[in-house]
Fold each of these.
Amino acid sequence: MANKQQDESIIEWLLKGDPSIRWQTMKDLGKSPKREIFKERSKIEQEGWGKMLMDFQDPAGTWGNNYYTPKWTSTTYTLLLLRRLGINPLNERCKLGCNLLLTNGLLNDGGINYSKTKKKRSETCITGLVFGILSYFKLKDERMEMILAYLIKNQMEDGGWNCRFPRGATHASFHTTLMVLEALYEYQESFSNKNSKEILRMRQRAQEFLLLHELYKSHRTGETVSTKMTMLSFPPRWHYTVIAALDYFQKINHEKDERFSDAIKILTKKEKKGKWPLQSPIKGKIWFDMEPVRFPSRWNTLRALRILQWWNQERQRI
């Protein structure tokens, strides 16, 4: 970013966006009083994208008349998007959807799967994704402990998670690992008095797995695992992206580590006049487009700025 005047103009541009953008800008990039941030956040379910998504809810409490499919209009993925918007975690209609997800997806081993096949088994990717949603919406249910126990049991030797672990996988998945990390963070935020030391150790192991790969590289060759990971996609759905991983690390205020450096370079190279574009949307059925592809994106600019704010602060501490 070139100068203070340009910085201020970008913030003004962000504040002209949807309530979900405005409140996160105020919280993460501004110095607004807490009451103003709270007031802005409350608008998410009253207007804009948040209200539009809530209006699509079925009378039964689901979205898309199903729990996991179609992607991306089902109950799972609509609640995931509402979580990313930052809707009030105590929203009762969202809690209704959460209860339906838990009741209709939980299996005896504590994992989750919505497949209708007779011999279905728990799917760690779906389990982590849904656990994050239930935790964000502060669902108080003893069955949550079953899910946590499942994730503890299925953490792999390298520190991450992989839905193919029961079928013999020995290397964790970037996608599943980040989803579980985000879920454990949400769980600790909502239920901070539960298993905190054990969860912290789990998170530290998984974070080290991502850092060992510098967030996007093969640990064997040092090459980019997939160019899709480097794209500025939003919303990411279940897909792993470098910007989503960096956003997680800035959220937890992770200490400085030079293994972030190349991922940060990928992010900074995509800046265009202080803004970041929307790239490569994840294909699937959607309720509506939030932003046009290849144009400046408020979502990506917001995420990039709070990541760089964290990174630059961390570097100044050294």
Note: Residues 1-43 form one domain.
Amino acid sequence: MTVRRLTLMVDDPASDHVAAAVHRPPRATQGRGHRSVLLAPGAGGDLDGDGLTALASTLAARGCTVVRANLPYRQAGRRAPRADRSVPGYLAVLAAAQDALGQRDAPWIVGGKSYGGRVATLAVAQGLSAAGVLLYGYPLHPPGSPDKLRVDHWPHLFAPALFLQGDRDPFCDLQLLDEHRHKLPRRATVHVVEGGDHSLRVTRAASPTGAASSEAATLNGLGDVLEDWLRRLD
């Protein structure tokens, strides 16, 4: 696997460029169920977060070409706007990534961490054609406000989805996720990390085995889960 830094030029009022990194798969896996993936970070994070980097590397090891990139507001040093206002920026980053890699022939998998994943779902619900949606710590509701669900757009999310969720995530009541996943018109797969928080970090006290796990270690260990989901996209 190789990782290369690049700058993507984007058409967005917040910034005309974003920092990005592309993970290319090992030569032995290239061409075998190949997919292209765009991952965006959470609201307060950037492309170099440990979890996002680990997720990109794990996908690349399974044959995907993965771009992780800042959204324009983050590149400009601003606070995250309301998620729907980041959709144009996400689409601009996707278009720039497709041009940079010369990969516009087939729909990409889109997604990201928390806010970044939510923005991707909104983009698909607004008409973006996607091979799948990969959601790492989807923010189903604000912490402490399970009545404020972020699912109104789900009936228009016409792409298979994979949720990677921790059972200690204050942003996602898993019972509510299970109750509302039927609103998604395509297959939705939920993988629950026991003891995992919003970043899938597992403390020793929360771990069912008594062993702690960093977010990167957790995501590095989800290769088989990701490969199974990728295979079922074909």
Note: Residues 2-231 form a domain with the Rossmann fold fold (CATH 3.40.50.1820).
Amino acid sequence: MSGADFTGFDLIDRPWLLARTLTGDRVELPLLETVRQAHRLAGLVGEVPTQVFASTRLLLAVLHRAIDGPRDPGHWERLWSAAELPVDHVADYLDRHRDRFDLLDVKAPFMQVAGLHTAKDEVAELARLIADVPNGHPFFTNRLGEVTSLSFAEAARWIVHCHAFDPSGIKSGAVGDERVKQGKGYPIGTGWSGYLGGVLPEGRTLRDTLLLNLIPHSGGQGSDETDRPVWEREPVGPAEEVDGGRTPTGRVDLYTWQSRRIRLAHDGTRVTGVLICNGERITPQNKHPVEPHTAWRRSTAQEKKLRQHVVYMPREHDPEKAVWRGLQPMLPGAAAAQGSEAAPFLTPSVLEWIAEVDDTIGEDYPIRLHTIGMSYGPQSATTVEIVADSVRLHAVLLRRDAGNLVDTAVQCVRDAEAAARALGKLARNLGEAAGYRPNRKAGPGDRDGPRDGAVELAYATLDPLIRSWLWTLTRDTPPLEVHAVWHRTAWTAIHRLGSDMVGRAPLTAWAGRVVDGKRLMTSSHAHRFFLADLRAALPFSQTDTTEVTR
């Protein structure tokens, strides 16, 4: 679009970020106004949860650079004690870089490459920009049919998301990118956040959330001055900045990492097409010094492959598991118990930071651990599922010295899993008693109808119960007492499910069957084994709290 009357789309002053007020209203705000009203907002929202993750990190990049810090814990504490974010600093900073926040700028459009084109000078449909499943159905339900155009605000949100979570696979080949072969850009991996099992701690307001995630610079790789977001770097062209890929200079660099080269096509009023090409490649190994929003797992396979002594990889989320089942790697107190050897997992450093300032924010401060990630198909070329869950905890559970309380929480999660397996075993035994023949050669990942269905039922039943129980853990909680409380709660729920299962078993199950030519299995046998398994899983369920010992 050309013309003297065309003014572009300034993201500093034009609404584009989606947020929710403390009264529950959904609003669309400019970047600066979002910062100004952060203490009145519950948080960001988006068309998909991964948009929230990407947009929050963009705001963090702005804040880090606007305040030139935080420089140390003392600087952070002063920010926390203020009622509002330092909006004057943010306004001055954004004004200095205003030319880089115009979505449609001719020379340096926001997070895009001016003049990006293919040999055939073609653009793709907008579905390429929007996260969708392999069969083309969008994750969100308010958009039906083919996407022929987007508002500038929508397009801005999806550009930020694309750099963070775009699938791998073949891309359009940009003229000027030496990696292109026969007009195609061959896979370089997903957007950076696509590698992560994202963990975003959220507070009472957006202001609190941003400050909880605003970690002071600790040296690491590069200095504050070298760790710059995309809008402080020279505008990129179609090629990589450094042949073979450059090393991220720090957290801020990763928050706005340009995994793709993008250009929007528009008619002056709406976006009508998009060109997405390969951008900066990046590998996930050992990025824990600069990436705070994921847990990490030690990978012996990568250590052998790279011939390195210790290699950590991002700990991705399992779409089949609720957030509480992966609680241990997110608790600094659990990580501290691993000893001095190279730990099998590392807690997200953002949670380590919250543990450091727990006395400042208060042990009873409510924190919602929001887990967000993307699950991809073969070769990470397609989006399969967006993973999003959350659990409410009091800040005391993130303390490094809350060992007994953390141990209790982690053990009760294990106990819940053992109780779920007990119900699964009951279902399998009842099935055998009724004549069902399971596949004895099935591996750990193979499905077993009766067993797996019962385990899923157990987890669905325990899910709201353990979330409520975790919220009861405070600084005054006696660990042994709440351990017994959870065992009794879980016993009641799973025992009821088991009794119903036995009561609904067919008459043939009461007579039973000889299994494997060796043992008789009847409903009575199955029930007796179930009670034994459940007692083993929940040993404190029948014990008075004054008798609980370890």
Note: The longest helix spans residues 403-433.
Amino acid sequence: MPDSLPGTASRTDVFGERLRARRHSLSTRMTLVADFIDQNRALVLSRSAVELAKEIGVSDATVIRTVQALGFEGLVDLKSLLSSSLGQLDITSAKLAKTLNELRQDADRAVNYVIDEYRQSIEHLTNKKNLDSLTDAISVLNSANRIGVFGIGASGILAEYTTRLLARNGLSAYALNRTGISLAEQLLQLAPGDALIVLIRQNIHREVAATMEEANRLNIPVILITGQRRHALAHQSHSVIVMPRSGTGGTSLHGPTLACLEILTLGVVGSNPQRSLNSVERLIGLRRSIRARK
């Protein structure tokens, strides 16, 4: 039996290695720039220093200093490396392959892997910073007219589930989970007085960028749930809750994020129990009405 799955040969992530080795020497603002580049490598290829500075919220000089502090001659040198590495490195498949290689021995490993990942994530969720953010987020959601939940891919399924859970408890909620220009129709639902939960693991894709821009334009408070401790969207968000990615470098699980969403939902529901009871009673009545028509 081979030691690894096909196509999983080790490849060096030069940028990632340099960032890890030099992070301690970077200032706070330079760290923000470095993390943005790390999280949005493909996007960086099409941006100038001025454009990057505007998106990150720093000066273009800070962008250049950060790039040089990481050992590159300039932005052109950095882009050359990123361009070549993006053609070789598929992070998602690499993580999945790593996980499968670890788990294929027996079922017990799979059980232990999931339990360990959940335990670590829940422990992190209950640290003081996250607990404060959860409390703050629940307060924001309680005062909102409606609640939107943004997510793409697997997070889109979580967004849909969360809005259904909120709705059945008497709250007005909607999901923003389409991709491409189809998302524009959903974004029309955003309105002043709403609150928005945004689920994003790492990269700032065009859908989340457009959603954040529209939410900020309408002064809608954003609750960011992310896998990055220093996410580049944090400065555009009212509250930030960090659900770290796999501690082993394997594929990420979505259960911990679901737990976070259910904490927020129950926190809002618990503030007005009568509203939930009234809604559930109405739901039961509607179900009876439907059954009677069989």
Note: The longest strand covers residues 195-200.
